[in-house]
Amino acid sequence: MVTRKNVNSYALISVYDKTSIRKICSVLKKYNIGIVSTGSTAKKITSLGYNCTEISKITKFREILNGRVKTLNPKIHASILFKRNDATHQQTFKGLKFPKIDYVIVNLYPFNKVSDSERHSKKIDMIDIGGPALIRSASKNFEFVTTVCEKKHYDKFIAELKRNNGKTTFAFRKKMAKYNFKLTSQYDLSIFRWLNKNNKNNIKENKIKIKYGENPNQKAYFINKNKKNIFNAKICGKDLGYNNILDVNDGLNCLSEFNEPTCVIVKHNNPCGVGSAKNINKAYIKALESDPISAYGGVVLLNKKVNHSLAGILKRKFFEIIVAPSFERKSLEILQSKKNLIIIDSSKLKKHPLINFRSLGDGVLYQETNKFKVSKNTIKLVTDKKSSEKTTDDLIFAYKVAKHVKSNAVVFVKNKQTIGIGAGQMSRIDSTRLAIMKYKDFFKGRAFVCASDAFFPFVDSVKKLLNLKCKAIIQPSGSKNDKKIIDYVKNHNSSLYFVKNRVFKH
Known about the structure:
Shape: elongated
CATH architecture of the largest domain: 3-Layer(aba) Sandwich
Number of helices: 20
CATH topology of the largest domain: Rossmann fold
Strand order of the largest sheet: 8-13-12-11-9-10
CATH superfamily of the largest domain: Methylglyoxal synthase-like domain
Distance between the termini: 65 Å
């Protein structure tokens, strides 16, 4: 038993990296916190001139297996885990006649710092067992026990003790517990990846070869991470290509914005036609009429069941893929008569991920999926003329589509039908010109509303829109020329709405 006078609280220190340990010992001594430790760490602490009791002397169990077993002891974990406010726990612990460990200072064997080219046994020796067990026990009991498992937190720990006269706050202990569980999970994951990296059978089972990538000279494959994937959702048709998969994914993202019967036709990762109506047949006709030339060879996505009459209409045109949540039996018979047409059951696909990522030459770029949903509550009239309810619905429809058009995006809409889309241009005025060109091709002379995925930086695009029959514009605010845009729209007796968030898509 530790006999240091007036000590009733102890710190267990067991660290691989012993640098910076002096300042920890110094602050513990200042607040009369006793130290118990494992073999090599205990020797280091003693050599620095601080009192320390080796853990094996109080557990009465010496370290064995060349140090593989030293802190895996029920008395140690009982001291860390017992609830200080539970009478039964207190009574049980008191019977162990063991020091009360309120602080755990641990860092782990540096598994990731050992090169994979080292001999197998050296890498295995660096798999820490006792350290993660101590960290998890102490972090679980963060209501009472403070755990510090990285050197970068030493100064914060010392400052916390000084602020609180040798104690720590609940908030600090909880914050450390959060860091600790993250660390141990990442540590275990790195070990798993090392053990799994040469599992060729595992990779082969999940790897689906694709004919080629974006171009025939590029090899491509799909890594299957879930049973709900596009290959399992395919009902019939030719093999899926790289570009097919991207088009389906982007189309489903756009389609997810709408609850009423809606059709989205995608070409080269952009919607070329979107329509909503009272039934899915009319929605498809609207989407097709939006831009019948671009729709040729595209991907048709629908959010309602495909009936046999719609199947007959779809069959008349050349499309690569038809995607829907369900198909009538007769509609499948009709569509399957087109030999190469790919048919996909979207109900068998997993929902879209919360995180998006892109691989780069020097790493991986992550971001949250854009979860912003435009609605009447997220838009604000900034001119005098208020739009009718129907026009406002068209503005919201247009902005939903703009969210899924490559930036710079400009979208014209009339009666929940896109009638001009400008996508992927280097300037917003060029996107506006492109949308106007499409509009004049198929819908010249009709009134419309316009959505822009980011603010119009100058009056030039707005002037072109209002010289046509643009009744209202929706865009994010944030330009230094916002007031000029507002004044121009106001002077031309039209409506301008600002929306809370921009929706760039690159």
